[in-house]
Design a protein that fits this description.
The complex is a heterodimer.
Chain A: H1 3-24, H2 28-50, H3 59-90
Chain B: H1 2-22, H2 26-46, H3 50-76, H4 93-113, H5 121-128, H6 137-145, H7 147-168, H8 185-208, H9 216-232, E1 236-239, H10 244-266, H11 277-300, E2 304-307
Antiparallel strand pairs in B: 1-2
Helix pairs in contact in B: 1-2, 2-3, 3-9, 6-7, 7-10, 7-11, 8-9, 9-11, 10-11
Classes of the chains: A mainly alpha, B mainly alpha.
């Protein structure tokens, strides 16, 4: 088994963990963590797939992933600001609580 | 031997990811996520992507971790109920885990069976590298071949900052309530050593980025860490109105990059084409200032920062 194959399988498992967390987690902060995991899994898949051929590492997926990491941090910061506001408006930070008003 | 190391790192990644989504408490999940980021940095190093390893350790694990901890802290201040993760098992957990296992199996199977891409852009980049002003192919892709992506990425950072300010509402962000021990003599000594060192490391990473692993994003994250340290120790305090340093700092990268792109367009050389190594370093320096300013303002959850009272 090659190095790329190991990391491709790990990436698939991390993406799976992210999807599971996104669907099952009740707390919004944990959903945010799950989205970040999902992103990391996709980044790993991109770079690991590009590394299958051996030879010099392909710089294009690496540059894409650096861009992706910064966008993921921006997304996390914005989502946390949204979560903060939601919590101040409703007093809830979870999705699995029944809505009383509607 | 090296495959065994890869196997261990891969297993650690998957176990940590499962811990993040199923951990008993939110705090534990966040800590596991930071550890996941650090293992991810090791994986990037194993995959011969040192630029990514630096970016992941500084931005992915460091800045994301700090952001999540501060978000957790703001919720925690409202009482233990706000950070209770909720019931451990939802009725859908078992069927969903089966479906997700199917997803993982099919994803892995498909990805392993994919034919290698012919005529990928990477080979063209490697072939074009000798004629470029910088020797680091990742920096060349970010600023020369795909400058448009990097320009828009700076716009994303700015939009995230503006969006975070907008949704915070008129009441402003919740107080960070950071216990500041500004009076301790050791804090002053620590800052006197760490802050200049961070500036030095950020500058080095920017300079090295041309020919070796490093670049504006990694350097910006290191500089942001120094800014966050100043906020956490009360040397910089949140202020409701951004000053000129914060305003110009946040847009400098976008301004310089766009201005250079337009000048090159006016000279008939194609928008965003880089006339030489000096222009790459100029744009990267402006990007570094913008990235650091934006990250400090996002982490401080404040529109502006002012010099705090000296102890």
């Amino acid at each position: 088994m090659s190095q790329a194959a190991i990391y491709v399988m790990a990436a698939a498992a991390v993406i799976g963990a992210g999807v599971y967390g996104l669907l099952v987690a009740g707390h919004l902060l944990r959903k945010l963590l799950a989205i970040n995991l999902l992103g990391s899994g996709v980044f790993l898949l991109l770079v690991a797939l590009a590394g299958r051929s051996g030879g010099a590492p392909d710089p294009v997926p690496q540059a894409l992933v650096i861009t992706g990491i910064v966008v993921a941090v921006s997304m996390t910061a914005f989502a946390l600001a949204l979560l903060d506001r939601l919590f101040r408006e409703t007093g809830q930070a979870r999705m699995d609580v029944a809505d009383d008003d509607d | 031997m090296s495959l065994a190391l890869d196997g261990l790192l891969a297993i650690s990644l998957v176990v940590l990811a499962l811990q993040v989504v199923t951990g008993a408490s939110l705090f534990r999940s966040i800590v596991m996520f930071v550890v996941f980021g650090l293992v991810m940095a090791l994986v990037w190093a194993r995959l011969r992507a040192p630029n990514l390893a630096l970016a992941e350790a500084a931005i992915g694990a460091g800045v994301s971790g700090a952001l999540l901890m501060l978000g957790y802290r703001r919720l925690r201040a409202a009482g233990p109920e706000a950070t209770r993760p909720g019931p451990r098992s939802s009725r859908l957990a078992a069927p969903l885990s089966l479906l997700v296992a199917g997803l993982v199996a099919s994803l892995g199977w498909t990805a392993l069976g994919l034919p290698e891409a012919l005529g990928a852009a990477g080979a063209a980049v490697v072939a074009a590298m000798p004629s470029q002003a910088v020797a680091n192919p990742v920096t060349a892709v970010l600023l020369v071949f795909r400058g448009y992506d990097t320009l828009l990425e700076l716009a994303v950072l700015l939009v995230a900052l503006a969006g975070a300010r907008a949704v915070e509402g008129p009441a402003g962000p919740a107080d960070l309530a950071i216990p500041t021990m500004t009076g301790l003599p050791i804090v002053g000594a620590l800052l006197a050593a760490l802050v200049p060192l961070s500036v030095l490391v950020a500058g080095y990473l920017l300079h090295a980025g041309g020919n070796a692993p490093g670049g504006a994003f990694q350097g910006g994250a290191v500089l942001a860490a120094a800014g966050v340290l100043l906020v956490l120790t009360g040397r910089l305090v949140p202020h409701p109105v951004p000053g000129p340093v914060e305003r110009w700092g946040a847009v400098l990268g976008l301004l310089v990059f766009s201005a250079l792109g337009l000048v090159m367009l006016a000279r008939g050389q194609g928008m965003l084409s880089m006339p030489g190594a000096w222009s790459i370093y100029l744009v990267e320096s402006a990007m570094l200032v913008s990235i650091a300013t934006t990250l400090v303002l996002l982490l401080g959850a404040a529109p502006g920062l002012r010099r705090g009272p000296l102890p």
